[in-house]
From TrEMBL:
InterPro entries: SET_dom, SET_dom_sf, SET_domain_protein. Residues 18-163 form the SET domain. Pfam families: SET. Transmembrane segments: none annotated. SUPFAM superfamilies: SET domain. This is SET domain-containing protein.
Amino acid sequence: MRKTLPTSLPKLLPPPPPSYEIRDIPGKGKGVVALRDIAMGEMVIIERPIFLRPLMITAGLMLQLPKLVMERMDPRDRASFFALSNVKDPDVSQFWGIIGTNAFELEMKEGVGRYGAVFPECSRLNHSCGPNTTRTWNLPLFALIVQASRNIRAGEEITTWYEELTETHTDRRSDLERKYKFKCACGYCTNTSPTSDHERSYAISEKAGHDFIHLYSAIYQAGIPIQIARQRATDLLQYLVRVLATITKEGVEGRSSESYYYSLMNIYGLLGDKEKLREWGFKAILMFPSNKSDWENKIDEWIDWMRDPEKNFPNWAMLRE
């Protein structure tokens, strides 16, 4: 497991004045509230954990950890740690109750090295089934990045998610009540339609991505007349708009929306619409996950497309009438 953790950490840049504050939220305890308007794509918090542990540890280490933390943790971090909420049953120690209430699961390397991490401020984020942020673990920086997934108004609570958002609202509410001792009363749980669970689950699923690839590749089918290819592109646009409407209605813009923005940029490039290509390309760049460092060259390519689509976009206006 040690090989999955860095031996030294780069310095984080000094943070700008915070766009939020931690305050009491009626019925929720502490929470994070926006001090000003925050734009979609803006980074809200970049923070390193004050406590990190493998999810799978021995019983012996579980007994030793509280004492080790008390002895070795920086006093300020220790104060932040023990100031966090604990909603677990009384028979669970305060130490493990705080971890069980506040830790986010992180993956140090794809498929291996799963850890639970506690943060002084990220762990103050409350749950919503339609969160207005996304969170990304950036291993090179060894930091959790919380980013606005849609515009957040001054005075609005900044939220994350505790349970998988593809679950039905009934399952989400049940799991939240069992694990965190509250029944979710957000509008995404209480104002559901008979089809909302299915629509939400599909919109942020791998199947939706596979369906898109199938529809997109059909545009390039060898030998088809340009009119048919144009109609298929129009059908794909309608499909993407429907899925994005569901994502917006369900408040899950932080889950896969960047891939839909990128796809719309591509379709509008084929149709020769500069304004729309730039609109959706800008959104795709804003929301692309910060841990995808291997995609930096791709983003540079998208910027070139937006700067001069006629010159730089492959197959520019191929389907324009």
